[in-house]
Predict the structure.
Amino acid sequence: MEKIQFNSKPSYSLWQLVIYMLKLGTWGFGGPVALAGYMNRDLVEKQHWITEADYKEGMALAQMAPGPMAAQLAIYLGYVHYRVLGASLAGIAFVVPSFLMVVALGWAYVAYGDLAWMQAVFYGVGAAVIGIIAISAQKLTKKTIGKDKLLWAIFLVMVVSTVITQSEIASLVFAAGFITLFVKAPPNWFKSGGLNSLAIAQVPAFSSIWGSFDLSLLSQIAIFFTKAGAFVFGSGLAIVPFLYGGVVAEHQWLTEKQFVDAVAVAMITPGPVVITVGFIGYLIAGFTGASVASLATFIPCYLFTIIPAPYFKKYGKNPSLIAFIDGVTSAAVGAITGSVIVIAQRSIVDIPTATLAIVTTALLWKYKKLTEPVVVVAAALLGLLLYPIFHN
């Protein structure tokens, strides 16, 4: 089997890369696209540690595999010259700073969440998050769907199903991938029929087996967040509707308000948006819950990066694989768009929050360089000002 031929003589040490990822995880605001851009600017253009070709391969793999794109790209870039050890240390260094931040925020939230000032902060931030997710959904829709009628149909079905069920249905995401694959680039085994078609039909049923066991809380957390990391495609925000369906609707681990606050925490901290799972895990079961939720979410994306990495150059452009990824990505974007409506029903509670959500959307639409953390800080300040006035 053909493997990637990486450059065997890196111009940097593994610890230089680890220190860089620690810094990026600590100061890297702006979401997955911005973080990927920082890596290109620093590692490819400035330092010349990574070639443009290797960077593009990492981006392609990160976009095609499930899980948080920026974290997968960091893992892949660590793999380029230092293989599994480099991938492991780069991924840990990138994620740990934001994990520690959300755990600290989780502690403060549990300890002081009932204080008026914290309620006021999340009153404003929760509304602003609606605008942030709405613009993210618009950008992803434009980038991933274009004018493709089949992808638009998948997108609309997922929007409607997410709004109706108030969760992302994993089996529909897989179905979207296989429908696109069969329509656009059916593999040879499908053309000839056979047992493989029957095996695929069993995928949704297999995922429901876990529901028949009586498991401890930590085991439930591990299984749910592993599914979140393994089955969610697209931007880091794609995990939001999936988490809502499980954390709020199914398991009832958090209230709707707590969940919206968890999404807000992800917006104000650097690093991957998916790190909101650490905050959620903390609210469910303290530091142990945060650790289990984070590990369960990131281990699948780590494996989905290092296992195919040696063979990606050969198989990454396979038409059937590309078609499958197009389908699941369109479904993920549809779920994100639907989640905007679902979360807005909980976050927009009066005229000020409705106005704030609309203004946030308009500002991010008009000013492309306006970053999410700036918007969130401004919304927090407005919340401190407006909450005492409208909620005496």
